[in-house]
Structure formats: C-alpha cells, structure tokens
Amino acid sequence: MNAAATTTHTNCLRCGRALRTAKSQALGYGAKCAAKVRHSAVDLTDYKPHQIASARELIEDGAIIPLRSVIFIAVSTDGTETYKTAPTGCTCPAGLKGSRCYHQLAARLLLAA
Known about the structure:
Layout: H1 22-27, H2 31-38, H3 49-60, E1 64-66, E2 72-75, E3 82-86, E4 89-90, H4 93-96, H5 102-112
Antiparallel strand pairs: 1-2, 2-3, 3-4
GO molecular function: zinc ion binding
Keywords: Metal-binding, Zinc, Zinc-finger
Pfam families: DUF6011 (PF19474)
C-alpha cells in the first residue's frame, strides 16, 4: 500500500474509541485493538503466505473499514478500487471467481479479534 495515500483516523476502526497518539491515528486502531487483531486466531491453512502478508498489510494500513457487522470496504493493492468484502465472499476479481482472496482473510482476522 502507498503510505502517502493513507488517511488519519480519529476513532478506532474496531471499537470506536477516540485515538490519541499519532501512531494509532495513522494505523486506525488503538494499541489494545491492534494487538488483538495481530494475535487473532484464524485458520490460515487455506491461504498462501503472500495472501497472509497482504491481509496483514491491508489491516496495518487501515485500508479495510467496517461497513456493517460482517461487511467491510477494502482498498485494492494499487489503491485505485474498493471492494465490498466479508469473510465468505468478496467483489474483487478473485472473489468473483470463487477463490479465496486476502480481502476475505483480512475480514476474518478483524472479526476474530
């Protein structure tokens, strides 16, 4: 993800609390929520290592935003498109073909936190 394209957040994307530090505002998550997301227990056996890395990068860049309880808006790798994603499906090209994509994994990681 392009670091220059990221936005600052005033509230945590996970719990909604106010973010006070510049690091938390850039990340979009408070320290405790970020730790919970990093250590969330999700079965990663169906995903390739580059998908796992991309999902974690998507979360770290704050490029996946909760829309409803299990639906998220995810930004594409190049930052030009957005996709609606959930743990079971995604509107990205891979998701429309029925493949598992890193957007779905990022949604699973956030929901497991």
